[in-house]
TrEMBL record:
Pfam families: ABC2_membrane. This is Transport permease protein. It comes from Vreelandella aquamarina. It is a multi-pass membrane protein. Residues 41-267 form the ABC transmembrane type-2 domain. Belongs to the ABC-2 integral membrane protein family. It is found in: Cell inner membrane; Cell membrane. GO terms for molecular function: ABC-type transporter activity. The keyword Cell wall biogenesis/degradation does not apply. It comes from the Bacteria.
Length: 275
């Protein structure tokens, strides 16, 4: 009796997403609704949390640590808050995926033990849920921009193009971490540490060009650097995206997605035995 081996080709990723699109949609909305079902304020927490963190970080880095960008003299501290907010919501996007992924198979152990269930769909749920919360935060950002009287640029319509290259990488990391998390429980601690490190080594609280040329090269190895800088450009400065940078990023991102998908499909056969 031959054992069916899951497909691991790049085309299999798109085929899986299309084939299980309705299941994926249902699980995404269940994830979003389940998060706020029992809370008093419900989905309002998606607005409150980033605004609260924005206020705290702005106070700490502008008042306590006296952080400075080159924009304060011309635009004031309010613009610094916007610059900071863009970085924070993009970091929040990857933080949610890295935080949820390692324990994903344990959370859905009943699905893992079923004879037939497309387990490869599960890691995509936190990715899409995080994207949903990201765009809620973007809506809040646009509201703050209007309230502060900052110019609203038509280039903000490029934002989905800027964020799109990041999503395959997030999916790849979700597949990779959810598979490794089954066999190595310490992965959750490692991913939490990585999230914290990314917060302080990404150009969130400081501009990338504030570093020396040598350190800037290392900065661009950070998966958030290009996306944060491009997002700030289209949202705040009226700049069009750097097509070459995004194309190069997309190639790397799709490679990470394929690697993560391949590891997940190879490892899934032993999930039920461990769980």
């Amino acid at each position: 009796m031959s054992i069916h081996k899951p497909a691991v080709s790049p085309l299999a990723i798109g085929r899986d997403i299309y084939q299980h699109r309705y299941l994926l949609k249902t699980m995404i909305w269940r994830e979003i609704n389940g998060r706020y079902r029992s809370s008093l304020l419900g989905v309002l927490w998606s607005f409150i949390t980033p605004l609260l963190m924005l206020a705290i970080y702005t106070f700490v880095f502008t008042v306590v640590f006296q952080a400075r960008w080159n924009i304060e003299a011309e635009h004031g501290q309010a613009t610094f808050a916007l610059v900071l907010f863009v970085g924070l919501i993009i970091h929040g996007l990857i933080a949610e995926v890295l935080g949820r992924s390692p324990g994903l198979m344990y959370e859905h152990g009943n699905y893992v033990k079923r004879v037939v269930f497309p387990l490869q769909v599960l890691p995509l749920v936190p990715c899409c849920s995080a994207l949903f919360h990201f765009f809620i935060s973007v809506g809040m950002l646009l509201l703050v921009i209007l309230l502060l009287g900052h110019p609203v640029h038509a280039t903000l319509l490029w934002l989905p193009v800027v964020i799109a290259p990041l999503m395959p990488m997030l999916a790849g990391l979700a597949w990779l971490l959810s598979a490794l998390g089954v066999y190595v429980r310490d992965i959750s601690h490692v991913s939490g540490l990585i999230v914290t490190v990314l917060l302080f080594v990404s150009p969130i609280f400081f501009p990338a060009d504030a570093l020396g040329e040598t350190f800037q090269r290392f900065m661009y190895l950070n998966p958030l650097t290009v996306i944060i800088e491009q997002a700030r450009g289209v949202l705040l400065w009226g700049q069009t995206p750097d097509a070459l940078a995004l194309i190069g990023y997309s190639v790397v991102s799709c490679s990470v997605a394929w690697l993560g998908y391949m590891v997940f499909q190879k490892a899934r056969g032993g999930f039920a035995d461990v769980l």
